[in-house]
Amino acid sequence: MKTIVLAANVAWYLSNFRRNTILKLIESGFHVVLMASRDNFSNRKKIESLGCDFIAVEIDSGGKNPFKDLKTCFEFFMIYRQIKPDVVLNFTPKVNIFSTLAASLLNIPSVNNIAGLGTIFVSGGFTSIIVRTLYKISQSKASRIFFQNEEDKLLFIQQDLVPEHLAERIPGSGVDLEHFSPTSAPDDSIVRFILIGRMLYEKGIQNYVEAARSLKDIYPNTEFYLLGPLDETKPSAIKSSTIDNWVSEQAISYLGFSESVQQEIAKIDCVVLPSYYREGVPRSLLEAAAMGKPIVTTDAIGCRETVDEGINGYLCKPRNSISLTEKLELIVKMSHQERIAMGLAGRKKIEVEFDEKIVIDRYIRVINSILKNRN
Description:
- Helix 2 crosses helix 15 (about 355-375), helix 5 packs across helix 7 (about 125-140) and helix 9 (about 205-220) packs across helix 13 (about 320-335).
- It contains 15 helices and 13 strands.
- The protein is globular.
- Strand 2 (about 30-35), helix 3 and strand 3 (about 55) form a beta-alpha-beta unit.
- The protein has 2 domains: about 5-175 and about 355-375, 3-Layer(aba) Sandwich (Rossmann fold); about 190-355, Glycogen Phosphorylase B (Rossmann fold, 3-Layer(aba) Sandwich), CATH 3.40.50.2000.
- Strands 3-2-1-4-5-6-7 form a 7-stranded parallel β-sheet. It has a 6-stranded parallel β-sheet with strand order 10-9-8-11-12-13, with helices on both faces.
- It has about 375 residues and is α/β, with parallel strands linked by helices.
- It is about 45% helix and about 15% strand.
């Protein structure tokens, strides 16, 4: 039986966002091993229930300590030397780099997934140079590199960070159309918005709060929610005290973290993500559209792929609270049935362009091709 490794920075990401990929690989006759650092949202029983194994690796996903990163690379190498996987699927930035380098030393093929570039990559400066250099060294050793949007793919090719023949665009991470099915919000005259994501400023959360303040003054029948984890270790993290202040002034309601995101989306009239972060294709928007919700996001790389303007949602200018407010006001002024119709147009877009089965099928075909060529 061939062994496939799926590696990411945290186990929660794999068990939640790659669950159907794992199950399809097992169904296809592969032995699947998950590798990630342990985290607060993962547990061994949940992972083992999928029918795969789990190996913990120490990954400092947000850190800049080179000695810790070298240790991570060495740890990947030692584990790969022991379990001898046939193919490794890498997700998340540091894993794309250090897992690939470790696997290449053992002649193990890697399939990498570059889902957005974040702020460090595009900010310039010494850290950005280091990151680009590491990408250039590591990605040339991969067997295939998947990008979630065409702009990121072209950037990597133009800057000679990846060989062009290895680069391919897939439709984001896809979305499970059965798990995220159309659900109408209550028709009770209240218009509810939600922003789902990590509590980071570059997700446009400050703009969202400012838009909420403006609209609530004019339309008291509106409600604005934030859903997502706090991570105050990151430089751009929003402090819990800041969120507490927003809540106390009744600008927004903070829902914290939830493993049942679809239950929260079901109650909502419109999902918002005014991100100016260099996204891949935001999963929260794909899930929202799959559930038949209009979406408002920025006309920016990764985000714009999810919206056909005026059909299933609206695009606003990045870092622009006035533009965001104007787009959200269009949603408020709609009738309940008009919002439902816009949301169902988004569902059709997801079915055609972003079905998770498209992504999983591509993984299986690439893995089989790699194994065939190695025999």
